[in-house]
Every structure is written in structure tokens, then in C-alpha cells.
From TrEMBL, chain A:
It comes from Aquabacter spiritensis. This is N-methylglutamate dehydrogenase subunit B. The lineage of its organism: Bacteria, Pseudomonadati, Pseudomonadota, Alphaproteobacteria, Hyphomicrobiales. One of its GO terms (molecular function) is sarcosine oxidase activity. InterPro entries: SoxD (IPR006279), SoxD_sf (IPR038561). Gene3D superfamilies: Folate-binding superfamily (3.30.2270.10). Transmembrane segments: none annotated. GO terms for biological process: tetrahydrofolate metabolic process.
TrEMBL record, chain B:
It catalyses: sarcosine + O2 + H2O = formaldehyde + glycine + H2O2; sarcosine + (6S)-5,6,7,8-tetrahydrofolate + O2 = (6R)-5,10-methylene-5,6,7,8-tetrahydrofolate + glycine + H2O2. Its main location: cytoplasm. It is found in: Cytoplasm. SUPFAM superfamilies: FAD-linked reductases, C-terminal domain, FAD/NAD(P)-binding domain. This is Sarcosine oxidase subunit beta. Keywords: Cytoplasm, FAD, Flavoprotein, FMN, Nucleotide-binding, Oxidoreductase. The lineage of its organism: Bacteria, Pseudomonadati, Pseudomonadota, Alphaproteobacteria, Hyphomicrobiales. One of its GO terms (biological process) is tetrahydrofolate metabolic process. Its cofactor is FMN; FAD. Residues 36-80 form the Rhodanese domain.
Length: 88, 418
């Protein structure tokens, strides 16, 4: 599996570390449902079989966080972007 | 029904051209209605059906398997069985599993090739020795066996290891003599045959594609072979769990990951039991055919592909060379991968769910083969009694909510680190 880093180009997956699903967003700790929302954020996952947006860190390259769109059934990479841009 | 296997049936068939054997289980077609449906014909699903019939007298049961039984992780794992856990939520469960392994072949009337050849976990530092001493004590508290052995004792057992590695010299090991291996396919076939003999329908090529709901409860499933209804439905589909619970809007503390295993060309006996490296993820045993069976880490990213990537091949081979340099002379014949249900604390779930009629067995990470007997036994209990047994009481679905995590490695809610 090779990941096209927007900064470094096509690089071996070995250069990257994986965090997981990019969808969960840190909830508002002041919201009335914060305890439930934090539980879901930390523990529950959609775990899709198919396209998934996920966070990868290019540790052996530009050291930036990426959002990688990848099909979990085939490992085909559908797109990549810097996390700062993809998640803002 | 298949007849009982014995030395007499072997001899009789030897003299009659082996023509007297009947299929080990019926090729059942799904009936419209059952008391209990078990989804997934891996080791856990088949064991669940067997213990439902045997222990609880519930025989109107079907196991629905989308392919052929044992085509998932049950037929892909590296067959290590052991009960060397640390935490109170885990260790009594795995020790019960070990006890069931010890009587399994007599119970099932099937040769599952259970071989208590010993599991040796090596340590390479003072801190690791202390941690293993503590683990060994915890094992003994549950009634399991464990021995902390020193470097010379390790050398007597496994002289071929690299004792004087510059960074990771071997200081000793934690040995569980009752641990070992079993033949994975035979475990699947043995449970299938024994369940079939008690009246369980084993339905292959029958994929569950949806759920039938009434008043909020699950009362049946849609399958590629038509609808099937039941009073209770237990999921035992390992890495495919989220695919099914998604249909019910039930989100789980589970991610599916890929784990690869390897087998070398056959050798004369060299590795006496199971040996694990303490400073990298690598473990090895030798199959009865002579091949060295080994593996290491999961790839680390979500995957349903049942196919890994080269970085892990490199990692595993590097760890192998550090521990057992002569492995470099061997040819690897095959590698393959399975679909792991990694949980948020590295421990499994055997529980009821918030949805009436639906029961859950998942979260086995890369260690569910050894759990097969106890998992089936406890899941059958939970299904039959509508309550967990004391042995699986800690394996609750809501434990992330209540804070009762069972995190053997202490790495937190990051499935790819367990
Ligand atoms: C490479 C590798 C090495 C391993 N090594 C070890 C080891 O040494 N020791 C150990 O203890 N554990 C090990 N494991 C883990 C162990 O194999 C699993 O935890 C265990 O097999 C999971 O339980 P199971 O046997 O029921 O799963 P599976 O055999 O995966 O059973 C699940 C079944 O559900 C079926 N299914 C899925 N979806 C559907 C559907 N919609 N409808 C109907 N059926 C469906 C699948 O086809 C499959 O047959 C290893 C796993 C792998 C991949
Ligand atoms: Zn980069």
C-alpha cells in the first residue's frame, strides 16, 4: 500500500502511522450531554466496510497529519488531504 | 447421523475399503423457525450451538454461515492455546477454556490434535521479569500452571534461540506447560459434528443480509436462502460484526483489522512448543507436518480485505531474525491473513444487547482461538439463561460506559495497539 502525501508524493505506507477514523469530533465539554458524547467519541466506531476517511501521520516524511480516503475492503486510496484543511 | 468414532470403527472401515464412513454432519437447509439462531460458523458459533444443545438442552438451533464453516479466522489462525492472562476479568475465563480443551476430544468424540507442548514467553529485561512474575502469580491464583524459568532453563528447552542478542539478550521466560496448540480445522469440524449429532442444523452458504424487527425486538434474519425466525439470535461473526450491527444502528467499540500469519517449508522437529519474543511481536511454533508457523503484529489500519501488506512481512521477519537467526535459511511457503475484531480495551464482549432478542459475541482481537470452548460455553449460557455466567460477567458491552475496562496491555482506547 502506498499513500500519495500531498506534500511528499507517493510514499510507502511504512512511513506513516495510523490513528483511525477521522469522523469523530471532540465534543463540547460544557454541553449537557457531554458525558455521553465523550463516551461515543472515545469508544464507538462506525467501522465501515468500504470507503472511510481516516487520520494518518507522515512521521518519516513531512510530519504532517493527513486525512486519507481509503476503501477498507480493497486498500485502494481514493484521495488524501492535509488534516488541517480536510477537517476545518 | 454420523456414527461414533472408535478404534472399532477404524478397524472395521480399514477392512471394508473405507466405504462405511458417512458425512460428519448433515448439509442442512434452513427451516423457517428456530428457538435460537447462531450467526457465524466459526469456532465460536459452532461451539455455542454445541453447548446450547449439550448443556442447556436447547436443540432447536441453527448455525448460519455465509461460506463454509471454518473459512474465517477459525481456519486462519496460528492455533495457540494458553491461559496466561493477568487481569481478573480475563484469567478465570481463559483457564476455564484451557480445562475445556483438556477434555475436548473425549467430549466431542473427535481428534482435535490438542497438544500441550508448552507456551514460553521470553523476557529480556529486569522490568519484564517483574511483570512476568506478577502475571505468573495471577495465573496461579486462577488455578492455572506457570513457571518463571531462568536463562539456563530456557536454553535447555530451546537451545536454538539467540541468547546473546546485543540489545535483547534472553534473561528467562514464563512457561505454561499446559499451553500449546490444537488443530484449528479439526476444532471446527469436531464441534460441527458433535452439534449436528445433537440435532443442530448447520447451514452453510447462507449469508445473513438483514434483520426482521417487530416492536423493537429482533425476531429473525433475512438471508441469501430466505428469512429465518427465532426467539433469540446470537451474533458470532468476529471481524464482520460491525457490518451486521450497522443494519441495526448499533455502534460498537470495535474496529476490524488485518492480521497475517506465515508458514515455512517443513523441517525435522526443532521448535518444541510455542515461543514468543518479548521485545518485538513475534511468535513461533512447529506444526506436526514440520512447517514453522509464525506471526506478529496486525497491520494497524482498519481493513476487511483479509490480505495484509509488505511492511508487516518485513517487521515479522526482522523480529524472527533477532530471535531465531537460523530462520533466515528457510523458505516461507505461504502467508495469509484474517479479519480481526479489535476491541477498545483488547478484551472480548459476550453479552446481551439493548435490542431484545439480540445477543453479542465479539471483540476477540488476535486471541480468540484459544477462547473457542469457553466462548461457546459462556455464550450458550448467556443465550439460554438471559444472563451472563460469572466467567463472562466482565465481558459486558457497556463496560466502556461504566469504566470497567479490561485492558491487559494498558494502552487505552486505541484498537491497533492491543
Ligand atoms: C493470522 C491469525 C492468527 C491467529 N492466531 C491465533 C492464535 O494463535 N491463538 C488464538 O487464540 N487466536 C488466534 N487468532 C484469532 C482467532 O482466530 C479468532 O479470534 C477466532 O477464530 C474468532 O472466532 P471465530 O472462530 O468464531 O471466527 P471466524 O472463524 O472468523 O467466524 C466468523 C464466521 O462468521 C461468518 N460470517 C460473517 N458474516 C456473516 C454473515 N453476514 N452471515 C453469515 N455468516 C457470516 C464468517 O464467514 C466466519 O465463518 C488468529 C487470527 C488470525 C487471523
Ligand atoms: Zn508527507
Amino acid at each position: 500500500m502506498r499513500i500519495p502525501c500531498p506534500y511528499c508524493g507517493l510514499r510507502d505506507a511504512h512511513e506513516f502511522s495510523y490513528l483511525g477514523d477521522a469522523a469523530p469530533q471532540r465534543p463540547d465539554p460544557a454541553a449537557p450531554d457531554a458525558a455521553d458524547a465523550f463516551h461515543d467519541y472515545v469508544y464507538l466506531r462506525d467501522n465501515p466496510a468500504g470507503p472511510m476517511r481516516e487520520l494518518w501521520y507522515h512521521g518519516a516524511g513531512c510530519r504532517r497529519w493527513l486525512v486519507v480516503d481509503r476503501d477498507t475492503r480493497t486498500h485502494a486510496i481514493l484521495g488524501t488531504a492535509f488534516a488541517t484543511e480536510a477537517r476545518s | 447421523m454420523s456414527s461414533r468414532y472408535s478404534v472399532f470403527s477404524l478397524i472395521a472401515n480399514a477392512f471394508s475399503g473405507q466405504k462405511g464412513w458417512t458425512p460428519a454432519w448433515r448439509d442442512a437447509a434452513p427451516r423457517p423457525d428456530y428457538d435460537v439462531l447462531v450467526i457465524g460458523g466459526g469456532g465460536h458459533g459452532l461451539a455455542t450451538a454445541y453447548y446450547l444443545a449439550k448443556v442447556h438442552g436447547i436443540r432447536n438451533v441453527a448455525v448460519l454461515e455465509k461460506g463454509t464453516i471454518g473459512s474465517g479466522n477459525a481456519g486462519r489462525n496460528t492455533t495457540i492455546i494458553r491461559s496466561n492472562y493477568l487481569l481478573p476479568g480475563n484469567q478465570p475465563f481463559y483457564e476455564w477454556s484451557m480445562k475445556l480443551w483438556e477434555g475436548l476430544e473425549q467430549d466431542l468424540n473427535y481428534n482435535a490434535m490438542v497438544s500441550q507442548r508448552g507456551v514460553l514467553n521470553l523476557f529480556h529485561s529486569d522490568a519484564q521479569r517483574d511483570a512476568f512474575a506478577r502475571r505468573g502469580n495471577s495465573m496461579r491464583l486462577s488455578g492455572a500452571d506457570s513457571e518463571l524459568i531462568d536463562r539456563d532453563q530456557v536454553r535447555a528447552l530451546a537451545p536454538f534461540l539467540n541468547f546473546d542478542h546485543a540489545r535483547f539478550p534472553i534473561q528467562g521466560g514464563l512457561l505454561q506447560k499446559r499451553g500449546g496448540t490444537a488443530r484449528h480445522d479439526a476444532v471446527v469440524w469436531g464441534y460441527a459434528r458433535a452439534a449436528d449429532r445433537l440435532g443442530v442444523d448447520i447451514v452453510q452458504n447462507c449469508e445473513v443480509t438483514g434483520f426482521i424487527r417487530e416492536n423493537g425486538a429482533v425476531v429473525g434474519v433475512e438471508t441469501t436462502r430466505g428469512p429465518v425466525r427465532a426467539r433469540k439470535i446470537g451474533l458470532a461473526v468476529a471481524g464482520s460484526t460491525s457490518r451486521l450491527t450497522r443494519l441495526l444502528d448499533l455502534r460498537l467499540p470495535i474496529e476490524s483489522h488485518v492480521l497475517t500469519a506465515f508458514v515455512s517449508e517443513g523441517l525435522k522437529p526443532v521448535v518444541p512448543g510455542v515461543v514468543t519474543f518479548g521485545m518485538g511481536h513475534f511468535y513461533v511454533s512447529q506444526s506436526d507436518k514440520g512447517g514453522l508457523v509464525f506471526g506478529g503484529d496486525i497491520d494497524g489500519y482498519n481493513s476487511y480485505a483479509q490480505r495484509g501488506n509488505l511492511p508487516v512481512v518485513e517487521d515479522v521477519c526482522e523480529a524472527a531474525m533477532a530471535l531465531m537467526p537460523q530462520l533466515g535459511r528457510l523458505r516461507v511457503l505461504r502467508s495469509w491473513a484474517g479479519l480481526m475484531d479489535m476491541s477498545m480495551d483488547g478484551s472480548p464482549i459476550i453479552d446481551r444487547t439493548p435490542i431484545p432478542g439480540l445477543y453479542l459475541n465479539c471483540g476477540w482481537n488476535y486471541g480468540g482461538f484459544k477462547a473457542t470452548p469457553a466462548s461457546g460455553w459462556c455464550f450458550a449460557w448467556t443465550l439460554a439463561q438471559d444472563a451472563p455466567h460469572a466467567l463472562n460477567a466482565a465481558y459486558r458491552l457497556d463496560r466502556s460506559r461504566t469504566g470497567h475496562m479490561i485492558d491487559e496491555k494498558g494502552v487505552g482506547a486505541q484498537p491497533n495497539l492491543h
